[in-house]
Amino acid sequence: MPAKSAMLVAPPSIPPAPPEDDEAVRDTGLAARVAAGPGFWTSWLDELDRQGLLEELLAEDVIARALREAPAGHRYDRVLNAKMTVICVLVACLFPGAGYDGVLATAFGLPGLRFKPGTDVPAGSAFSQARRLLGEQAMKRIFELDAARGDAELGIAALWKGLEVTAIDGTTMELGRNDALDGEFGTPGDGARPLLRAVAHVRTVTFRWIGAAIGGYHDGENTLADELEGSFGPGMLNLADRGFFSMDRWIRFSGTGAHLAWRVKNGAKSVPFRTVRTLPDGSELVMLHESDGMRARRRRGTADPCAERLPDTIARLVTFTITARTASGRVKTTLMRVLTTLLDHDAYPAREIAALYAERWQIEIAFLHLKKTVRGPRRALRGQSPELARQEARALLLIHNLVATAAARAAALAGTDPGLIPFAGILGLIRAHVVADACCRHCGHRTAGPEGPLTSLNAAITALPRHRAGRQRTSGRTAAGRRARRTEEVTYTIEIVKSNLPKWDASPET
Description:
By secondary structure, the protein is α+β, with helices and mostly antiparallel strands. The protein is built from 19 helices and 11 strands. Strands 1, 2, 3, 4, 5, 6, 7, 8, 9, 10 and 11 form an 11-stranded mixed β-sheet that branches. The longest helix has 29 residues, at 386-414. The model is unreliable at 1-31 and 33-42 (pLDDT under 50).
């Protein structure tokens, strides 16, 4: 009898075998599967072995690798074990508006979890306890392992002069209202929600996170950024806004082998360097020198009264103006200074470095995707304890990476720029395909077609309409500014100018 006409018989109510025991899972309910017919039996076993869409979007075997390093608190629970809890947390972040019962119903229908049809789905309270048992470290490790994949592994090899362009910056996310979260993370003012602060390192071509440091609202972005030093390495060119520069951080981060192009403040007395000589393209070689006052402040900040003076360091400064002209005739000129480790003015002309710095804004787009599209506007995180809030923040970053990874894969197949594929459209397709990939809890069949879910998803993403390339627009920076004037087309003009720095004097008194 063909599979599609086989009579389906519900398996007997037998406690499920531990998911780690493959043979026990296959042997449980043998009589019921035989009675159901060979079509059902084969299909059911195939569904047990097949990976779900979420696991396919992750780097290979990252959940198992991370859980091997995590505490074994879930081993006593045969249903909400550690892997199942991870999947449920990811589904909860993928569907932020769903309640715990809906999250569990979706997650328990996903393939690859080795639960037989008819397995009882636990209640939301059990999921809350399972999240506490899982803790923060397992999700943090899964995020780190998945984020370690380079763009080249996904078929994206867009480099700037042989370097992968990245950016760092920080943002905040709202949390629930309770004393534990208030005390751990802090609030911006009386009556406000506590805020979690995240500083992230992102690949600007694909919007995929490389690393992230999470702290409280009152933790400084620079303090959290120091935790990202390990995510820097050779072959990378990092862009950062002017708040991140310090001579100590510059030396440490460039010491990883990564190149830096960081914006610095415009005041001549606000930066610790002087001009050595002007280069033919208008940029300048400058000497970074730590003064006595700077060393005293660093000693106080690091609680190391014997810290040696930082070594004098050569860098290159590109000072330029950007003039923006809108279609309505509005004109604005901004002076900017970018300090870089790229010293060769022939290989890296000043005008090209100035134009490249605009890529730093890609991290702002990534934060917009994370907070407005994935999490949803004005939606607080569910976690009601500091550990669960950090766990959920890591899971949100991971879901963002899954969407960005799907975009990168589809863009590589289509030979296009990942930024031209709409992020919100991809997220909607992933949600729809995850639901379609879920199996019926009673018979084990799924509603999706015979092709693999990842193949179907890639085809759907490739068919999405593209953003228009080459658009340059501007609007007000604040909500009030955006209400006052509409978004306009804009043209930008870059001009390299001379800095206002004093000359470097190599005498001992300097």
